[in-house]
Amino acid sequence: MWLSDTQKIGIALVAFGIFFQFLGIILLFDGPLLALGNILFLSGLPLIIGPTKTFYFFSRREKWRGTLCFFGGILLVFIKWPVTGICVEFIGFVGLFGSFFPVILQALRQTPIIGTFLSLPYIRQAADKLAGVRQSAV
Length: 138
Fold this sequence. Notes:
The protein is mainly alpha-helical. The protein folds into two domains: 5-98, no CATH class; 100-137, no CATH class. The protein contains eight helices and no strands. The chain is globular.
């Protein structure tokens, strides 16, 4: 599957946004880095999936709580409350993107080194519980 140039730019913006978020947290919740990361992430997402799909993703009824927390956390970062803002934003991120965690965990299990580590007995149970994977009754 080939990506359009717009989608490639969107992926780069989201990647830089995540990088600046991580860097802002590592540097003791540096507000400008966190704000820059938020702006880059939010500007890259519509370029990847399109503005209409982005709007529908954030406005779905079952995602309202996550949307409000995510954007409320961004607002708190912008008004210079970075620690509280990142905590609220993280809760919103989990609410919005939490359904993708089992898919990401399954993809990680198929990689060579990480997959072996994630398949160890106790680590597998803990990772499944964290990702919200439902266990089938045997």
